[in-house]
Structure formats: structure tokens, C-alpha cells
Amino acid sequence: MSLPATPDAFPQAFAAAWHSRDGAAIGTLFAEDAEFVNVVGLWWHDRARIAAAHDYALKSFFAETTLKIGTIRQRALGPDHALVQCRFTLSGQTAPDGTLSGDRQTVMSFVLARRDAGWIAVAAQNTDVVPGAETHVNAETFRAADYRNG
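The line above is the sequence of SgcJ/EcaC family oxidoreductase; the predicted C-alpha cells follow.
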């Protein structure tokens, strides 16, 4: 997978890599020493870990998902860096009990650096959108799921 030619094309490249179901394709969009924080705070510190985590998810509970691009915002951080934020809608996730879960919306933030081959992510943060809420409370109305423990 090639790097996007412009920062605002990065969300499309990420979605295309997602739909390939290949974590290595996602990994190619990230610098060797990139950082990635997922929606529950798992924090991966390099391309190999980012690729491995996505490969596992894309071949299991995200195997049938669709990632739809929504609003994209871009801010230049100088001539060779940019912040790109994108709202995504994720559909088709398999719940831990094997049922189909409801759609989720997230906002992903990508810090990008210009390279000869295109724009590459040096950091990313994915944040779930919780409609009607302004923060999280440690109560039974919000829970994270861990697929690793059955």
C-alpha cells in the first residue's frame, strides 16, 4: 500500500488498509517508531505492534466490519507535518458472545509527517463517540470489552 500524496487523503488510505483485512497494510501507513492509542487506551509503540494488533482484530472481531469516512479536518503543523482528524463509523463488529454489535462512531486523530513517498503517520489516537455524554463515569452503564479472555 502506498502512502497518500496529501494529508487529507490519509483517512481514505487508512480505510482502504482496514478493508484489506491485513494488519501489515495498516502498518505501512505508520512510521517505524509511530505511536497509536486505541479507544480503550491500549498504546502501541511501533509499526510492528500497530500492525500486529490490527491484524489480530481484523481477522477476528473486526473481520466483517465496514469503516465509513465522515467529516475530515486538517491542520498544517508546518510545511512537513499535519494533524488530520476524521470521524469514522464502524459497522459489523462481532460482540464477544458472537452476536453483531451496533454501529460505533469514532474520531481518529493522525499526526502526519511528509516523506519522499507521501504522508506517513507518526502518531494516532482513536476516540469512541458516546452520543449524549460529556465524560465517562466508572459505573455499569459503560463497559469495555476484552476479547483476549474468551
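Note on the example: The beta strands are 30-37, 43-44, 66-76, 81-91, 104-115, 118-129. The first strand starts at residue 30 and ends at 37.
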